[in-house]
Structures are given as C-alpha cells and as structure tokens.
From TrEMBL:
Record-stated family: Belongs to the sulfotransferase 1 family.
Native source organism of the sequence: Parasedimentitalea maritima
InterPro entries, alphabetized: P-loop_NTPase, Sulfotransferase_dom
One Pfam family here: Sulfotransfer_1
Record domain Sulfotransferase: where: 3-206
Coiled-coil regions, chain positions: none
Protein name: Sulfotransferase domain-containing protein
Record's keyword terms, sorted: Transferase
Length: 222
C-alpha cells in the first residue's frame, strides 16, 4: 500500500484508481469522480469463470473446478456472502452489495453508474458521457481514435498492452483476458433450479426496475 500511495502522490496528471471494493468501503471525496461499472450478474459470473482459469495458479480451483459436474461453482456464486472469506469467488451477494451502495449515492454529482450493455451498444456515447463528467474535450478526430482504441477487437489484438500486467506472464494468455466480450453465455448452462435460486435472490434484494437495469442496462430487458 505505501508503494502504491507513493506512486499516486508522484503523479502530476489526473489520477485514475481502480477498486473492486463497494462504495461503502471506499473513502468518499467530493473532489473525485466515482465511475461504477456493472454487468448482468450471470454474465459477470461466467466471464469470471473464464478469467480464473486463465490465471496460472491453483488458488481458485476449490471454487472453480475444471470438471464441475456437481455444480460447485454456481453454488458458491449463489450462496457466498458479500463480505465473507469467499469474496474472491465474486458471489452474487458481493455484486448486489456493489450495486446497492453505488445506487444509494447515485444522486450525488460525482457518482455515476455505467453498464456494460450500454457500453457495447453505444461506445461513442459512453466516451461522451465520461468526457462530460471529467470536463475533458477532444477534437472529433482524437475522439474517433480513442473510441477505436477502446473497441474489444483492438484491445484483444494488442493484449500485451491492454491486459492487466500484460506481457509479464501473469495470465496463461493475455489475449484470453479478452475472451469474447459477448453476453448470454449462461443460457442453457444452468438448471431450472439454479435459475430459480438466482431469480429468488435478485427479486428479494432488488426492485423490478433495479433488477432490469443491473441485468440489461438502460434499455432494460429489451
């Protein structure tokens, strides 16, 4: 932590910090902009399955076994706690904690909620929104180049540059960090009972409107 703080303090330009901690665990400062990004919980879960299997460590094998005939992985996702020892398994409760704490502050001018579905539908619109939040403007040509650089195919094609710790052997494959970028891979992969358990948790903790947004972004189930 002191090393990270020292690097941040030494920066002369605008600083950007990423955290996996929900908003109720972060220091709140009116001088900062908090950009909170969400994805359909089941899409996030299935993407995370791919992600941990791309890490050359056995740390996650208990929660994410390669041969999972008994449904261990989805059970950890559904039964895990928001702040428990299994936080690295990214259970549904943890995602809901992120959403609830962020949405509780969404009326503040420096807290904004973004959704992966909206980004994929309108990447240019996402850039415009972030630019407005940060008070940054670019020429039309520069903006077009920035948007192109942020496309999935460009990042996957230059994975050593864009993957976390790219080129350092942290992943089995830097390109696989950008596996597909698509949604809905969970369709046909879960049993009716598993889907019913997921629905029950979502309906217990979220209003219908909040659930639609958390799963599908601004366009809802459409």
């Amino acid at each position: 932590m002191p090393e990270v703080a020292e690097r941040l303090e030494a920066m002369q330009h605008r600083r950007s910090m990423k955290s996996h901690t929900p908003m109720d665990g972060l220091p709140f400062d009116d001088r900062a902009q908090y950009i909170c990004v969400f994805r359909h919980p089941l899409d996030a879960h299935f993407s995370y399955r791919k992600h941990v299997h791309n890490i050359p460590m056995t740390w996650f094998d208990t929660w994410f076994p390669e041969d999972d005939a008994d449904g261990i992985t989805i059970r950890h996702f559904l039964d895990g706690g928001a702040e428990g020892f299994d936080g690295d398994a990214m259970p549904l409760a943890n995602i809901l904690q992120h959403y609830k704490t962020a949405s509780a502050l969404a009326e503040r001018p420096n807290v904004s909620l973004f959704h992966y579905a909206d980004m994929t539908r309108d990447l240019a619109g996402t850039f415009t929104r972030v630019s407005d939040l940060l008070g940054i403007s670019h020429t039309e040509t520069d903006m077009e180049q920035l948007i192109q650089a942020a496309t999935f195919n460009n990042m996957k094609g230059k994975a050593e540059r864009f993957a976390p710790s790219g080129g350092k052997g942290f992943f089995k494959s830097d390109a696989e960090f950008f596996h597909s970028g698509t949604s809905g891979k969970w369709h046909g992969k879960l049993t009716n009972d598993e889907l019913a358990a997921y629905d029950a948790i979502m309906d217990e903790y979220l209003s219908p409107e909040d659930r639609k947004w958390l799963e599908y972004g601004s366009e809802g189930a459409a």
